[in-house]
Design a protein that fits this description.
This protein is α/β, with parallel strands linked by helices. It has helices at 59-70, 72-77, 90-100, 115-119, 158-168; strands at 29-31, 37-39, 47-52, 80-86, 106-108, 123-124, 129-130, 133-137, 143-148.
Amino acid sequence: MAAGTCPAAKRPQLCDPLIEPGEPAPEFTLPNHKGEQVSLSDFRGRKLMLVFYPSDFSPVCSDQLSIYQEVLGQIEEAGVELLGISVDSSWTHNAFRKQLGLDIPLLADFHPKGDVTRKYGAYIDDFGTGNRSLVLIDEEGIVRWVYESPSVVEIPGANLIFDALAESGAA
């Protein structure tokens, strides 16, 4: 399924399309798992993969982020930083990272709930969470590649990240 498509059964209420490659990535500032403010502009000059996911501690989200943790070194060797974003709070992110042994920074799109996730077109209004979506941003802040899972229970595998990096020349 192409990025930005919206199966009615999966996203029945709000169906903003996922941001498109070539568009400037919307600026944001969100607290991380330590409560420290992190902005998109902090990554200017570096490639960044945003990982939107529904919620901490769910079995599928735990599996998804554990998979990414396993290949984090390879992603970083390719010159790309990974950031997870969900509507959970910083406190929840902190506990989730500890439980899974994650090094991946997690950002809290908690208040106003889902504001950044909506700007990227990854928010599912009926569920009150983000969809599983990946957004690769280049050194200049331009979106270069996107992927939207056709279902909140379908994990975008690490192979998709590596394919995106190869396609963008990062791998």
